[in-house]
Please model this.
Amino acid sequence: MTGGHAGGHGPTLRLDKYLWYVRLSPSRSSAQALAERGIIRLNGRRVDRAHAPVRVGDLITLPQGIVVRVIRVEQLPVRRGPAVEAALCYSAITPGSDG
Model:
């Protein structure tokens, strides 16, 4: 299976579920509210829908306190598992780097 977001093919997961499953949000309702505030970017585009589809290879930019995090979706989780399992679903991107 190839990564990336070419043409919108492949399995997807709702943005709010993804943020909750990978423990970037403490609850599904807070993930939903965060997504609907329009302060998250998905592949550089502002998102204001909790049901925006997330795919492997997508870049998600979101504020966490005074820090802005950029993550690459590495895999779509099937549940909200332990933190160790959740951490395998994304990789942190350092803004200003090429990786």
About this structure: The CA atoms of residues 15 and 52 lie 5 Å apart.
